[in-house]
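Entry 14. Ran structure prediction on the chain below.
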Amino acid sequence: MTYTEALRHFVAALRVDPHTPPPALRTGTVDEFHAWKAEMRAFDAARIELGLATPEGMQEENAAVRLAGRPWRIVEHARHP
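Output, structure tokens:
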């Protein structure tokens, strides 16, 4: 499924049921993982398009480190020889 097809699919599914779950994680092969990532991007874009989420909310939801809205900055950069 291409990104465009996935986006159309999730927009339609989320219109019917806003609690439609995201695509299930697939990590069997690299190609399956890439397909899953494309579907996740489409799922997130559909939620934003339909007003079910905001870009800021998606960024917080998908962040590896949660900062609870607090500003942060890098204090020291690693130095490599």
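Residues 3-62 form one domain. Will compare against last week's run tomorrow.
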